[in-house]
């Protein structure tokens, strides 16, 4: 820390070139697409986004420079997946900050969600948001996915930024009923992940494995989802 010329006054260290000051980073303005994706649930997702913006960095849920793209890169990136969900019981593995689990629960109040997260601090955050937002369709379970003991098999399971597909399949497929689906959010390398996970796909009886691209022409960045049916 630099020494201050005035006692008790902290002089901040100079920022490295190209580094933004987190205190000056502002939350991204709500995109117009939010109203189309959330409809009557818009106020709820606004509240959640505000809470995540206020507390996310402090709690280690999001990076310090995510605010300028929080809506487009995270909230809407998750919400665009909502039409792929069917009424029933959907699990979200590695829910963390609530992306995508809480966002999808807000967008789809007709679907029941089980958010599976092993870290106590993140579980506390998830439970707090469920209570504050009054989400009646969400249950939070503290567990590692491979150790989760759910009352009922899932109709579908989601995951975002958890692990490579070959490692993610053993964590998710056993939680899903026969005929249920994996809805796994992935990046540009989604098709390559499918090819690399051929052994796990066979072992866990997945079929109709495909990459779905969502949000083209609607969002700044498309969302890629690997969807597969569990036999």
Automatic annotation (TrEMBL):
InterPro entries: rRNA_ssu_MeTfrase_G, SAM-dependent_MTases_sf. S-adenosyl-L-methionine binds at residues 94, 99, 145-146, 160. GO terms for molecular function: rRNA (guanine-N7-)-methyltransferase activity. It comes from Cryobacterium levicorallinum. Keywords: Cytoplasm, Methyltransferase, rRNA processing, S-adenosyl-L-methionine, Transferase. Belongs to the methyltransferase superfamily. RNA methyltransferase RsmG family. This is Ribosomal RNA small subunit methyltransferase G. Its main location: cytoplasm. PANTHER family: S-ADENOSYL-L-METHIONINE-DEPENDENT METHYLTRANSFERASES SUPERFAMILY PROTEIN. GO terms for cellular component: cytosol. Specifically methylates the N7 position of a guanine in 16S rRNA. Its EC number is 2.1.1.-. It is found in: Cytoplasm. Pfam families: GidB. The gene is rsmG.
